[in-house]
Amino acid sequence: MSNVEAVIKQCVDVLTRIKDDDTVPRNIRRSADNVKNILLDTKESPAVRAASSISILDEISNDPNIPLHTRTLIWNIASQLETISVDG
């Protein structure tokens, strides 16, 4: 498994945890699921998938209703995805 694939898999795992967390508002869980689907779509290059995902993650991290622990997870995912844009 390449480094890019490992990063994507790790991000998808965290997004799945967010999606399944009932303490997270529904709109944020829906966005997390949307990002997960973008990352798993192999028709696009990893760099394009990462860029699209970062855009959505940035948007939801600014939601005032997002729990603090979830915001931290979102920032961590975005940071990991930024490495793909450079390497990918």
Automatic annotation (TrEMBL):
It holds the Pfam family UPF0147. It comes from Methanocella conradii (strain DSM 24694 / JCM 17849 / CGMCC 1.5162 / HZ254). It comes from the Archaea. InterPro entries: Ta0600-like_sf, UPF0147. This is UPF0147 protein Mtc_0431. Gene3D superfamilies: Ta0600-like. Belongs to the UPF0147 family.
